[in-house]
Amino acid sequence: MTETKVRVERPAVVLHTRPALEMDEEQFFQFCRINRDWRIERTAEGDLEIMPPTGGETSNRNADLTMQVGIWTRRDGTGVAFESNGGFILPNGAMRSPDASWVRRERLTNLTAEQKQRFLPLCADFVIELRSLSDPLPPLEAKMREYLENGARLGWLLDPGERKVHVYQPEEDVRILENPQKVSGDPVLQSFVLDLKPIWEPGF
How far apart are CA 104 and CA 78, in angstroms? Predict the structure, then answer.
């Protein structure tokens, strides 16, 4: 008998702050530090999005994503990889934390030591968002478009429940790959190929 996966739509909790509360970048960073048990993002309008914790399967998938991107990054040497807790202040003022991301090394050389200790003031060149069974699709699609509008060169939205990869690139229509076993990052990430088997089929 085939198991049917039920997708429970539980979007992030959204806290509207303006005009009652204004936080500058330092205050927002400290707010996230003292609430480190929450995963918090901020929209360009200043709303705070509180993400629910991930389940075991999503956590396992995230770990594999981070590992694959990290191994390639160390071998390639042209950039720096970040995991899901890394925050980026986008040019539009939003703060986002992709599930995995990569930035060309030369873009980081001009950052001060203090900037490197805070949310990085840039948009990553490459971003991955992983959809869990509790994630509605439209907010993730909007987030992927936001990455492109703020400078990302390549983005993947991975949907394990549907076994689809949504590929985002500047000035191109979104491509949807149906049940691929691998996906290539060329030419943005030269020779990087993501093995999707552990994403489609978690290791436990």
Answer: 6
Residue 1 has pLDDT above 60, yes or no: no
* pLDDT for the residue 14: 85
The total number of structural domains in the chain stands at 1
Domain annotation covers residue 12: no
Q: Note the pTM of the prediction, 2 decimals.
A: 0.89
Cα separation, 94 vs 80, whole angstroms: 21
| Within-domain flag for 79 | yes
Domain range enclosing 120? 54-200
Q: For 104-144, what is each residue's pLDDT tens digit?
A: 999 999 999 999 999 999 999 999 999 988 788 999 999 99
35 in any annotated domain: no
Residue 99 pLDDT more than 60? yes
Structure tokens at 80: 């720096």
Q: Is residue 44 part of a domain?
A: no
Rounded CA-CA distance 15/86 in Å is 21
Beta bridge partners of 41: 49
For residue 81, the one-letter residue type is: A
Q: How many other C-beta atoms lie within 10 A of the C-beta of residue 7?
A: 14
Cross-strand bridge partners of residue 167: 156, 175
Name which of 180, 62, 182 is nearest 131 in CA terms.
Answer: 62
